[in-house]
Amino acid sequence: MPLYLDDAVPPPMPRAFLDVLLDCHSLIGEESVNPAMAIGLLRERLRPLLPDVHKPLFDLRGQTSWDSLWILYANLAAASGGTDKQLMASAAVVSILVQHTTQPPREVEFPSHLELASFARMATVLGLPKAHPHVGKKGVATPLYAFCRYCWLPQRSRGVCEHHSTSSKPVDKFGAPACAVATHKQVQRLRPAFEKELTRLVSTEEWQFHESEFGSAVMLPLSGLSNWLKERRPALALLLEADGRPGEARFLPALLHVMYGTEGTEVAQAIGRSLHLLTPITARAEAWLCAWRGRGSWGGQRQGAGKPAAPAKNKDTTQPNQ
């Protein structure tokens, strides 16, 4: 379908960027727009308006799809930091071109596990293997990247892990992953903030990777893990410090214990020395911890549901007169 601007409401933007939309509308005419045509127009009309440092964002890898164009929108929005008017306008132009080339407007969601797609692209550039590690559980090989929809743990049944199903109960003990403290209802409520933070983190890191001409240390390193965590995964680093700061030699076992509990040893065996395979998993863990920490006060009438418990009334123990 062509580009429909009648039902598009662009935000305030510099005139040059509004002209890009009008030019695209004129050039498309009655033609049907596909992703290849869309990225061609964006590169021809929109990219020249941006500083050179941001132009590599338009260098999408692989076959262009509506999903990859939506990631371009996310990368432009993340690069803007909410203050750069040119990048914000560019993101709006991409959003309109993606959503309003069909009627009703296309509902585009980020592809499942955005962090895995980003990891695969960067690993390809760096020439790193993109294996899919598995761990054994009750005789069944479970892929680590088959994530629970609510956290970073591998799903066990119906898209959720054993700690976040409707029948699971929160635990807070030495052998449990850090996310196991949350109930099923809590992770349901947390999910929008978790996914928003994950999108921000992943898109920002990939943008930095391209901006640095592929020199940014986005992958989990074989050495210097503690410094990498402080810079790239500060919430995870704080959690490790709260558990007692381990020496560098014990940092990986301590990290895997925080993330996987007693199953951390199996995960270490699954990845071997390919620590970069943990990069997308730590991104999910970091985003989850940030969302959990920023959840604020959740309402509720029961004790522990976000409100302080009412003070207990002292029981009258005096004996009635005989």
Structure description:
Helix content is about 45%, strand content about 0%. It has 11 helices and 2 strands; from the N terminus they run αααααββαααααα. α3 (about 65-80) crosses α6 (about 185-210) and α5 (about 115-125) packs parallel to α6 (about 185-210). The longest helix is centred in the middle third of the chain and has 28 residues, at about 185-210. The chain is elongated and about 60 Å long. It starts with 14 loop residues before the first helix and ends in a 29-residue tail after the last helix.
Compose a concise summary of this entry:
Helix content is 46%, strand content 2%. By secondary structure, the protein is mostly helical.
Summarize the amount of helix as a percent range. 40-55%
Q: What sort of overall outline do the alpha carbons produce when their principal axes are compared?
A: elongated
What is the H-and-E element order?
HHHHHEEHHHHHH
- Distance between the ends: 91 Å
Which structural class matches the secondary elements?
A: mainly alpha
